[in-house]
Amino acid sequence: MAKIVFESVTKTFPGKQAKGRRAGAPGGGAFTALDGVDLEIRAGEFVVVVGPSGCGKSTLLDLLGGLARPTSGRILLDGEPVTGPGLDRGIVFQQYALLPWRTALGNIEFGLEATGVPRRERKERAREFLDLVGLAGFEDRHPHELSGGMRQRVAIARSLAYDPDVLLMDEPFAALDAQTRESLQDELRRIWQRTGKTVVFITHGIEEAVYLGQRVAVMTSRPGRIKETVPVSFGDRATGAGGEELRSSPEFARYRHEIWTLLHDEVARARQLEKEEATV
Ligand SMILES: Nc1ncnc2c1ncn2[C@@H]1O[C@H](COP(=O)(O)OP(=O)(O)OP(=O)(O)O)[C@@H](O)[C@H]1O
Ligand SMILES: [Mg+2]
User: Fold this and answer.
1) Are 44 and 212 in contact (CB under 8 A)?
2) pTM score
């Protein structure tokens, strides 16, 4: 059985942006962000979602996180419809969503409070996860005393600490410099391999998608649907080979080009749409 199933998922927002003329835009001023998303994700799979800006990627993740409800269609998690947020799903947002008045350790403990882990154990477990993301020694720092990359590590540690089955990540590394991003990608891959979690990861970065994803789902321009999913497999990935070697391989370049082409067509379509709407 699939871990996660999107079944003809549609999301419309009541709004002023609809132009009526556009295919997929219903009348009455509603705005269609997602229109018929179908996607199945296996347990333990690492799926990356890419798509033009505004195509509904964050909306998709919000729905899976239970922060919003689909207008039609349904989302199943372990065969049950998602009806709200839950501790079985950890979310890492693009913006560092840390509590500024709590230390790094305190922020991770915060995630554990909701799960009823006893206080002593909370501290221990929080330390363990801070270690896991390479931040041993930074327990007592507050978010403003940490770099952007460190804050994002704390956010990742917080979502991992209460042991959700599913990790939802919305452009978690977008605001970081290239080097920090690459080292966090390696760390995330290592954590994923170690924990076997199901990961849904959104990004604008094609290289990031190819590097991290077992499968890359490319979305259409809005209203968003899944245009195509590209399975990514490298001969030597299972052995843990990574870093520069993988990124500079001909296979990597081939995948990058394939996804670039799929995405390029959609971005062009999105631009055209915007132009048409601007002249209405
Ligand atoms: N609460 C809302 N009310 C009205 N419209 C919304 C709402 N949330 C999102 N939208 C619209 O839905 C569309 C999809 O938004 P979403 O944030 O999911 O896009 P995205 O693919 O994540 O974009 P980006 O790559 O820029 O982050 C956008 O056009 C956006 O304006
Ligand atoms: Mg977004």
Assistant:
1) no
2) 0.88
